[in-house]
Write a structure and sequence with these properties.
With about 650 residues, the protein is of the alpha+beta class. The protein is built from 20 helices and 22 strands. It is flat and about 75 Å long. The N and C termini lie far apart (about 75 Å).
Amino acid sequence: MVKQDNYSYAAKDIQVLEGLEAVRRRPGMYVGGTDVKALHHLIYEVVDNSIDEALAGACDRIEVIIHPDSSVTVTDNGRGIPVDIHPQMQKPALEVVMTVLHAGGKFGGGSYKVSGGLHGVGVSAVNALSEWCEVEVRRDGARHFQRYERGYPTGPVRVIGKAARDETGTKTTFLYDSDIFKGDMEYRFDTLIQRFREMAFVTRGVTLYFLDERTDREMTFYFEGGITSFVKYLNRNRDVLHPVVHVEKDIDKVTIDAAVQFTDAYSESVYSFANTINTVDGGTHLTGLRAAITRIINDYARRSGLLKDSDPNFTGDDTREGLTAIISVKHPDPQFESQTKVKLMNPEVQTYVQQVVGEAFSSFLEENPSAGKAIVQKCLTSARARDAARKARDLVIRKSALESLTLPGKLADCSERDPQKTELFIVEGDSAGGSAKQGRDRHFQAILPLRGKILNTERSRLDKILANNEVKALISALGMGIGDNFDLSGLRYGRVIIMTDADVDGSHIRTLLLTFFFRYMQPLMEEGHLYIAQPPLYRIAHKNQVMYAYTEADKERILKDLGPGAEKASISRYKGLGEMNPSQLWETTMDPSRRTLLVVTIDDAAEADRTFDMLMGSAVPPRRRFIQTHARDVRNLDI
């Protein structure tokens, strides 16, 4: 007999969420959550609407301003949202667009050739998730205005003044709702400029101005060269093998825009966009681009005799080493995997991209044999290195975490076997490793000490990397493999924590590790498994009290709290983790109830790619410029 729960299930129990209440109840479905990333997504949704006006040829300037109270204004000189009465809803069209889900000018196909979305929930979702929102429309010689609070109009659409006859556009100002986006949240200037830079690259001829009134920082983007400029920007610190190959073509109302260039780098830098939106998870357009590049290089290598009959074809990995490419498609009916639009799903796009990129890249290789030969030589070297790496990898990787003999001898493992409950501390040096091993909780904390600095993986191929003992130990301990065999599900520890000294060497080791993880284990960062420990800088003893300061500001605050007695306080500066005894290290840096961990995220892969290349690559002048520019921003630097 089936057990009956005492829950009512009748007509009265069926909930109907009216209007925008569904968005407030389930924000994750519309903007991806209630975290900082989703907070930024509010701005993207409004700016995307202005970009759609630019794609329609109706707008060439967009302004974004963050005010001191964290409200945001987005202004464009597009056509302005219609304000006349909607025949079906019997309300002004502006009010319909702002308060009704799945309403907008992008469904019928008459108002926009292409647009950033098919869901029609963007700006109405932003309105629903805002404490208040105000929209001013300049259209038909007048300035129309309406205000909303938590999605609901506070009054009718009204005329508040005149506008010049040729003056059109929309100005949207909103303040996010702190009841939904809780905690210490704020917009990040650097995150936003990366997104706006990409938008300006893929929307040629549009000026995008951004001002942050909180800090008086501002930036303007305008790129006449479009995605060709984007590729040059990404490769400006690399040696290139040939000029940028660019093609733009329309097939069946779909615009394919691609730019390709090979460099001397060992990694791939390929980014995809659909209707100007960065599809971070790729999709059919990215698959088409990669397939076209691999097929054309193999065909060319065979035809020109650079690949012998006995040689196997190049794999996709071989042909993508050192490739920098942008693929941007504009589609009248884009199908995305979700409202946050991270993956394009239209199957026909793959065929179109393969055809357009294939023809253009094939013609380029035929007309530029020296560039073709250089690209094929790079692929041959890559194939040989990959074969050597495969052999080296077989020595490093073991099939199961249970085969304890395969784990590095220096690893002090934990007894817990559930990866969700365990953490691995990567520690520099044997002395710090010794303190960490003694101070840890052996049940769920494992320690892997590294001797010296690991290899700079930005300047090395995988075969050389796998010959490095420290890297081998790291790969074995993590259990995910590397390269073709990489599998995140094999991760043996839910948290991987980099714990280095608060000095120059410690910072260098941390950067080397981050470079390795970014280039070869990026999903570890993307899925939130990688952390940086924050050891204290100072130990302050006063009478029977011991306090720890993690920053200079912390130290000043503690001394201020001590008042007149601060003069008698004993202040010790920690140069390294090895200076702490095991109990101090546990108490300050390893105890989950008291420690501070920084989670490592990638806000923008293209910008991270360029930064790692600049900091860790072979070109010296850009690195010197970066250091000189940012020297004042350094927090903890030991001379």
